Amino acid sequence: MAGVVGLALGSTAVADEEHFDIGLWNDAGVLRTGGWDHDTETMAGGYNMRVFEAELGEDSETPFGTDEPGIGGVAADIGLPEGGVFSLNIANSLGRWNGSGFDAAGDTFMSVNYLGNTVDTLSGGSLDFVVADDYDYHPFYSLESTGTIENGAYLMELTASMADLQTSESFYVVFNLGLDEEAYEASVEWVENNIVPAPAALPLLGAMGLGAVRRRRK
Asked: Which of 16-20, 21-25, 149-153, 165-169 has the lowest average pLDDT?
């Protein structure tokens, strides 16, 4: 494989603004995502954030990887039971920015590793996390390929699930690999304007070749 890489609600943050971790919370029995700030231990990014940002390769030793955004929360403040387990689920294959939308990323895919367990956008899968009193988890996201990894913005779609709660709406991480701020911001804004606000826009992903990923057989 060539290289390794990583993984905010209708966020309008540009590349030089603060990026938030993924914060899950219980909205009357429905899992929602918000923009979690671990420093302040609040949903400083809002309780309805569904588009998150991440920069790949900030560490020269992992030029195609990142451990951001993390996943954080304080059990008593988010309505989730301490000791409970939630899952992050890969919901679609990886997309790559073409300047006006996202195409299928071809032989390039994203893998996500946490505590030795790995899932990817080729086969799908889920990673489990424990709700602690105050938690701050950072899985490692890796952009990999059987060919050449090209600079660009890459789109990953996820959901979150937990026993006795309704699964979250899809949320998205837009990863930047080598694009300048203006180009990357354009890709983030496209996701915010074309996927998150209007559910009717979701079938566009299928039209662009981003069909549902194949699930691993147990």
From this structure: 16-20
Per the CB < 8 A criterion, the answer to whether 141 and 65 are in contact is yes
Residue of 179, 162, 194 whose CA lies nearest to 50: 194
* Structural domain for 187, as ranges: 21-207
Residue 203: asked if its preceding bond is cis (omega within 30°), the reply is no
Written as one letter, the residue type at 133 is D
Within-domain flag for 8: no
Amino acid (1-letter code) at residue 150: E
Number of folded domains that form the chain: 1
Instruction: List the beta strands (DSSP E) in the chain.
Output: 21-27, 30-36, 51-55, 65-66, 71-74, 85-90, 95-97, 102-104, 108-114, 117-120, 126-130, 134-137, 140-145, 152-162, 171-177
CA distances, 28 to each of 50, 89, 165 (Å): 18, 21, 9
**Residue 27, domain member (yes or no):** yes
| Closest alpha carbon to 33 in 84, 94, 88 | 88
Q: Render pLDDT for 54-106 as a digit per residue (tens, 0 to 9).
A: 999 999 999 999 999 999 999 999 999 999 999 999 999 999 999 999 999 99
Q: Please give the model's pTM, rounded to 2 decimal places.
A: 0.84
